[in-house]
Amino acid sequence: MIYSCKKNLFLLLKPALAILNKDNKIEVVSETIWPRKLLVGTGLKLGKVDLTYTATPEKPSVIGKALGKEIASSYSKIQENQKQLEEPSSYKEYCDALPGPLCNFFQAFLTGLQEKKLKAINRMRKSRNLPSKAIDTDQITRTTTLFVSMILTIAFPGMKIWLTHIMSSVCQKPKLLPYLRQILYGAKVISYSKRHENRLELERAHHADPASKILRGTQHMFNLAVIDNIDFAALTFKSGNIFDTPRKTSHATLRLLIQFTLPNAPDDIMEESIDQPLIGESSFTDNLLITFETAFNAMSDDNNNVFNLEHLHSKIRDVIPLGCSNIPDPHIVILEPGKAPNCDEHVHAACDMYRSELQISNAKKLYIACDQAIYGRLISYKKQCNDVRLLLGQWHTSKAMLGALIKIFSGYGIFDVAAALGVQYLDKLNKVVDYRVTSHVIELIWGAVGMVLCQHVKSHGGEMHDILTGDNQVLLLLLPLLLLPSLLLLPLLSYDF
């Protein structure tokens, strides 16, 4: 029985194996009974016939180059349909006006992909007793239209292709961005719907942990906490009632953490700064006076007493290096916001959140930078916690210090100098109504006084320090004006570090 089965199998395989034999030419008779698919596959396997198709890298590049040449040479044909491509009356008319070779290529390409995917999908649906899915030709047409429109825009930028022109116009209006998303989702360029993206956004916001971004374990780390008020307004306010502004606006406490990696421990640096006297002469003011004198003398020699503030700034930059070359860029972390800073309890709670996130012990200090409104609410918090160090914002500090400097030097004839420079509203200058203008006027006075003092000392063959030992009271009165930039640093040095 087994022998007869083997004999029958050999008889069935004999015609297929005879075809593979190149030496012996066996004529195949038309009456030959052809074997089944399994037997044919077995025969081809025994004959070591390779049926796999491998696409070499040269084949797609040749096809792409030929297609590109075809599109470039069909410019005259595309111009015939220019009106339909730029101002179509319907979507179907626009699709029909697209070049046929390019559309056929992408339709065949996308159809092959969809058939391969649907084959696997329908196999799974069949195992679950579900009906099979058919290929979506409309979606292939939408994707083909988008791809062809993009390629035509790249190939012929002078033509205003309708679809890409509409997409670029939609990008200019933030409120129209959902429509752009619908176009991309319809062409399956975006895989997920808007609803799915919103759900992912809520999940990521719920599981986000900003405190995990904080750098830890660094010995010479200086942590600066920043607290400010942040407002959120509704986007529909432009077309709504202006009296709905408070109802459509929400407030929160913005909490930032700026981490600086210092070359030395922060406590050692602050102990060195405490050794310098806050008021009066010091090595810092002496070095600064020498630096300014050098800059003024160099500017006077180069510009023949005709200069502006930009020349002065460039000379100071040549002597004083900008930035901190030995300190890397700070690491900034946006932490979880707090409640609206409309009461002391909410602001104090925002500060307590820093303690748990930074794991501040009794030996460490918490440095908090804030604006004037929040600074007023943190005064009581500083009295309760001795390890808190408050830093007023630089704008408020500079504005207050500028007003104090104007009052201090008002007896030195500073208003007369300002009037000579063209300032018309001296009362506004005194109250620092416009900080930028007032700062610019003070800087002009500083430059003029510094140039006069340097020229006077240079004409007598002396140096700036000789004014302190001389009897000229006028020059002694003018010398503090030269140290105005250093006086602006006093509020930063006066904090109880």
Tally of helical segments: 25
List SSEs in N-to-C order: HHHHHHHHHHHEEHHHEHEHHEHHHHHHHH
- Helix share, percent: 55-70%
Number of domains: 4
End-to-end distance? 104 Å
Overall 3D form: elongated
Largest sheet: 5 strands, mixed
* Arithmetic mean pLDDT: 76
Radius of gyration: 40 Å
Strand order of the largest sheet: 3-2-1-4-5
Counting helices, strands and paired strands, the structural category is alpha/beta
The stretches of 5 or more residues where confidence is low (pLDDT under 50) are 28-32, 486-497
Number of DSSP-assigned strands: 5
Which band does the percent of strand residues land in?
A: 5-15%
Structure notes:
- This protein has a five-stranded mixed beta sheet with strand order 3-2-1-4-5.
- The protein folds into four domains: 2-46, no CATH class; 65-170, no CATH class; 218-263 and 327-392, 2-Layer Sandwich (Nucleotidyltransferase, domain 5), CATH 3.30.420; 277-322 and 395-493, no CATH class.
- It has 25 helices and five strands.
- It is elongated and about 125 Å long.
- The protein is an alpha/beta fold and 497 residues long.
- Mean pLDDT is 76; it is low at 28-32 and 486-497.
- Helix content is 58%, strand content 8%.
